[in-house]
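#onboarding

Welcome to the new folks! Below is a worked example of what a typical request in this channel looks like: someone posts a single protein sequence, and someone else replies with the predicted structure as tokens. Don't worry about understanding the tokens yet, we'll cover that in week two.

Example request:
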Amino acid sequence: MRNLSLLVAIFTAVALIAGCGGTGLHTIVVTGTVTFDGEPLEGAAITFTPRGEGHPAFGITDANGRYTLQTMLGNPDAGTTPGDYEVAITKFEATPPRTEEEDALGLPPPSPRSLIPVRYGSTGTSGLAATVRQGEANVFNFDLTR
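Example response:
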């Protein structure tokens, strides 16, 4: 009887530990491509902001402009939850490291320069949206223009 109790305790502990590994967030894979003037946009940050129900999600485009979303609470590349989203996309020029002279003079760091029109960087001005649905292919392509 003691061995049975020990066995039940071990199985319960394993089940609890296995259950703690997940987020409990049921996500749907969301992918797509971002282009700028017809060319793949590498290194752009894309964010999906829910209009109500849903979880904010983000992704970074690869050399072919492809992205896969993930939420802060979800597993990498797992997507996001169903719902309506507003979309923002940003891409900034890398700023060079500050020199010792600039630091000594107390000069402010240079502001990063947007490599795409700044209107795309805000959900209020981008005009981009997506609806993530359960049981559907959630592929959202965005062709940005000047």
